[in-house]
Amino acid sequence: KSKELQGNNFQFYNASMEKSNLRSAKVENGLHKALENNEFVLHYQPQINSRTNKLIGVEALLRWNHPTMGVVSPADFIPVAEETGLIVPIGEWVLRNACKQVKSWHDLGLGPIVVSVNLSARQFEKQDLIELVKDVLAETKLDPSFLELELTENLIIKNTDATLETMVKLRELGIKISIDDFGTGYSSLGYLKNFPINTLKIDRSFVSDVVGDLANAAITNTIITLADNLSLNVIAEGVETEDQMKFLSSKGCFLMQGFMFSPPIKAEDFMEKYFEQDDQELLLN
Ligand code: C2E
Ligand code: MG
Ligand code: MG
Ligand code: MG
């Protein structure tokens, strides 16, 4: 092989780049048709209160069943959807369907649970976000207090008047706002005092090693104390073990979400799992 290519590293880098470009082109092409072809489905992950052992809410998480690629992870297609702007119609579909689903669960007697919907920056910045949320709430008849939108710090980093205004208007509709993946972004903590936030979600990267890693324990502890002092709710993401659950509970964080309770599951499975139980007592596993 020629010297100009500077050995295998260069070629390897090139080849893998090409492969990932190809894949993302395929993802992009597919995304355009995914909505009309009904290839999206929402999965729901329970959120529980470890003190009462009750179901308090669900996070709606998007899944894409591609006809040839199979199930594509959100990590692979959400960034493409964000770049192309397709996240706007896709996100609208998510919001509408998540609200509809949870309203129907309320009507069937599984209440009062909150539904959390992830919102990307592109959606948040759209002029008509407030109208959209208002319309979806009216259409689905979901009580606004049962809808929570999850924003990330990277969205909030802009910390502009427009960001504040949008958040205030959302809160005026009666819905809740949480900060997803809290502690992993690049923003300062100052925004916490300006913005009308309800809940901090401790990122899984801190929770996953909270028992064995002193730094993660310290960070997690600090987030719990911070939330407490600011009168915010706090929920831990990615709780997988009983030790993690015990640690979090001992620090005063009782709201949790994670594989220990359940991975995200299909709506039908969710029904089966949570409707059978009389007063929604959670049977772990
Ligand atoms: P996220 O909002 O932080 O969601 C939590 C992710 O952690 C989910 O991954 C969930 O399956 C996973 N998870 C939950 N508990 C555990 C656990 O105990 N252990 C482990 N290892 N993982 C756990 P998922 O569903 O693959 O979603 C990844 C990300 O994609 C989400 O992170 C969110 O940022 C984004 N996403 C998913 N659905 C949507 C959507 O409808 N709209 C937007 N804008 N983003 C979405
Ligand atoms: Mg989330
Ligand atoms: Mg998260
Ligand atoms: Mg995340």
From TrEMBL:
Superkingdom field: Bacteria
Positions of the EAL domain: 24-278
Name used for this protein in its record: EAL domain-containing protein
Species for this entry: Anaerobacillus alkaliphilus
Portion of the parent chain present: 647 to 931 of 931
